[in-house]
């Protein structure tokens, strides 16, 4: 289990840093005592290869990777489901927490389909201690967070 889920499960705060560049800062962020790095693919030039390198660097120093995938529901409309593909793609490289901007209930309902490969029964997140192997939350504000807690750190 990752540091983020361990800390949240113990009722502690998990702290992290947004990054918009490559893996160069990851080891410094870990030495500073943070628990996660938050690569931002939505408002930066990060691509999937660079995200993978950031994630590998984070794993090497014991940090959790929490990515925001590129999505723009305000311009792409409510029926565009590319965001679900991008969430699954992030999971496929080992990312444990994925954030995405969504525009409709249809997009929110598509997330459990994305999670089927991670766990058979995704459940809504109610508290930090209620996180199971997979969880999703959607508060209606246009943001969704989908997480997968893997057995390895």
Detailed description of the structure:
The chain is α/β, with parallel strands linked by helices and 153 residues long. It has one domain (3-148): Alpha-Beta Barrel (TIM Barrel), CATH 3.20.20. 34% of the residues lie in helices and 20% in strands. A seven-stranded mixed sheet has the order 1-2-3-4-7-6-5. Helix 5 runs parallel beside helix 6. The protein is globular. The termini are close together.
Q: What order do the strands of the largest sheet run in, or round the barrel if closed?
A: 1-2-3-4-7-6-5
Low-confidence stretches: 115-141, 149-153
User: What's the mean pLDDT score?
Assistant: 76
Pairing-aware structural class of the strands and helices? alpha/beta
Amount of helix:
25-40%
Which fold name fills CATH's third level, the topology? TIM Barrel
CATH architecture: Alpha-Beta Barrel
How much strand content do the residues show? Answer: 15-25%
Series of H and E elements: HEHEHEHHEHEEE
Question: Terminal Cα separation, in Å?
Answer: 5 Å
How would the global form be characterised?
Answer: globular
CATH class: Alpha Beta
Count of separate structural domains: 1
**The CATH fourth-level homologous superfamily:** Phosphoenolpyruvate-binding domains
Compute the number of strand runs. 7
Number of helices: 6
């Amino acid at each position: 289990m990752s540091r983020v889920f361990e800390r949240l499960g113990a009722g502690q705060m998990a702290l992290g840093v947004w990054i918009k560049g490559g893996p160069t800062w990851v080891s410094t962020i870990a030495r500073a005592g943070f628990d996660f790095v938050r690569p931002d693919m939505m408002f930066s030039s990060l691509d999937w290869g660079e995200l993978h390198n950031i994630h590998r660097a984070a794993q090497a120093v014991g940090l959790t990777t929490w990515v925001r995938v590129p999505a723009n529901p305000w311009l792409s409309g409510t029926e565009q489901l590319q965001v679900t593909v991008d969430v699954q793609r992030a999971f496929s490289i080992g990312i444990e927490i994925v954030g995405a901007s969504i525009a409709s209930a249809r997009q929110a309902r598509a997330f459990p389909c994305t999670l089927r490969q991670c766990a058979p029964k995704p459940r809504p997140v109610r508290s930090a201690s209620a996180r199971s192997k997979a969880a999703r939350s959607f508060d209606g504000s246009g943001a969704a967070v989908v997480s997968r807690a893997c057995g390895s750190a």
